[in-house]
Amino acid sequence: ATARAAQQQQQAEQAAAALTAEVLQREVARRRNFAIISHPDAGKTTMTEKLLLYGGAIHEAGEVKARKSSRSATSDWMELEKQRGISITSTALTFEFGGCQLNLLDTPGHQDFSEDTYRTLAAADNAVLLVDGAKGIEPQTRKLFAVARMRGLPVFTFVNKMDRPALNGFEIIEQLEKEFGLQSYPVNWPIGSGDRFVGVYHRPSQKVVMYEKSGAAGRAKGARRSEYALTDPELPSLMEPDLWEQLQEDVELLEVLGDELDMDGVMAGKVTPVFFGSAMNNFGVELFLQTFVEQAARPGPASTRQGVDVAPTSPNFTGLVFKLQANMDPKHRDKVAFVRVVSGKFEKGMKVRVARSGRTVTLAAPQRMFANERQTVQEGFAGDVIGLTNPGAFAIGDTLVTGPTLAFPPIPTFSPELFAYLRCAPNQKKPFLKGVEGLLGEGAVQVLYSTDEYITDPVLAAVGQLQFEVVQYRMKDEYGVDTTLEPLQYCVARWVKGGWPALEGVGRLFNTTVMKDVYDRPVLLFRNEFALQQVLGEHGPKLGELSPFALP
Ligand code: G4P
């Protein structure tokens, strides 16, 4: 009888494991995770709103915008963000479309917050490149694209604002090729732009989709239907003769470009499917979503420092902490750690180990962010982002595990370009140090110290001026400390890979200062790129390899 019971027990366990495996397979297969990269004003907020509208996550256009301007109600320091009209915080929005769960990682738009964007892109599987049709590729897009490229993310391009006078489609394609080395595969193609925007030609179906202004009866002149086959005899009468002629020419030219989509190229981030539309008028967004859901990369295996890959369907839970944020809700004085689920199933209340410290933590109050409202999450799978109230146990780049101890590779940081001593009044030293530690732990800013033991004031190292302002604002707001900044005349930082030994024997360095980071590693600061080149020319071999990023 005992043998039989044991056998039954084993069978039950096997059945449960098979069921879990099936659930994991199914859930991972329907996850699509992405971040939008764009230059401020290209229409990211508008696009996000329209995507959510399709997903049924919001019910009225204007909700995201409304949230954007009512943020001060939920967080004090975001007042700064309101004053400057920029988005500092990063959230993950979740919605359903076409049987898939889409997770949109919202990237901060302002260039000073590239650090955060870096981290957000470390948690993304796909990038949506949003381009203003009139302006083409802009500086901020270049910076962000470099990050997406480094991670080899598949890129989907949406050319927005076609209802305004725009560049020719071929000019955009050429920019993508020249600047990013991206081969384009136009999925749809614009017919006219601005006042003469008639619609798009959808290549896979060989149909023309007529432009309609959202809500209003704005359908293109004379069109009775929203779609026409390219061969439809009625079609030429629906646009001015030159546009019709242009369309036929374009269709031919596009065929020369190739009509087969190279999916391997898309997955490798070398080929980008391109869409044209108008987010504001909700035109072209659904077409985009349909293709995106089909073609976007699913959560894939992740490499680890241990050399083994973690499959997203592995039964063991693993997660990556990619962003920390304090005091999102001033009423609760809390901290949130954003975790990307990499494998297994996340469950509310589960116990995980932090690979770095070995500490076991119960994930008690998991949250998913919707704009600035929180919903408690019961479960999550690879590709999902979960906001955990942070008991101080997490640092950026931490790996959370339930199975064997594994660690994901470190998240790179941008090289700082601005440096300044941060100081306070002598009687505020205690809260000051607490504040520096808090903001540092959160990764809000990098900190360096002088090698002179009598100079104890921290040196803030930032990518943009706004990072300084945020630190000062938060020091005052959250820790009650008034601070002053004393800028340093340096703008290039290099970490010495060989450490202190590499610096010995190298004599006095011209126009250069040596500082140390919080891990006591030497960092060289240069007044300009020229000074760096000079030092390299003179001492390069002795100094050995230098890195623009904080070493892992
Ligand atoms: P961002 O988040 O990338 O910074 O851009 P956002 O969506 O806030 O859009 C920037 C401006 O561009 C907004 O105008 C928005 O309405 C407009 N816009 C977005 N998509 C389109 C489009 O497809 N066509 C046209 N014509 N305009 C578009 P605004 O005047 O700054 O704000 P609002 O008064 O319209 O809210």
UniProtKB/TrEMBL annotation:
InterPro entries: EF-G-like_DII, EFG_III/V, G_TR_CS, P-loop_NTPase, PrfC, RF3_C, RF3_dom_3_sf, RF3_GTP-bd. SUPFAM superfamilies: EF-G C-terminal domain-like (SSF54980), P-loop containing nucleoside triphosphate hydrolases (SSF52540), Translation proteins (SSF50447). It comes from the Eukaryota. Coiled coil: none annotated. Signal peptide: none annotated. One of its GO terms (cellular component) is cytosol. Pfam families: EF-G_D2, GTP_EFTU, RF3_C. Its main location: cytoplasm. GO terms for molecular function: GTP binding; GTPase activity; translation release factor activity, codon nonspecific. Residues 29-300 form the Tr-type G domain. It is found in: Cytoplasm. The keyword Chaperone does not apply. PANTHER family: PEPTIDE CHAIN RELEASE FACTOR RF3 (PTHR43556:SF2). Belongs to the TRAFAC class translation factor GTPase superfamily. Classic translation factor GTPase family. PrfC subfamily. This is Tr-type G domain-containing protein.
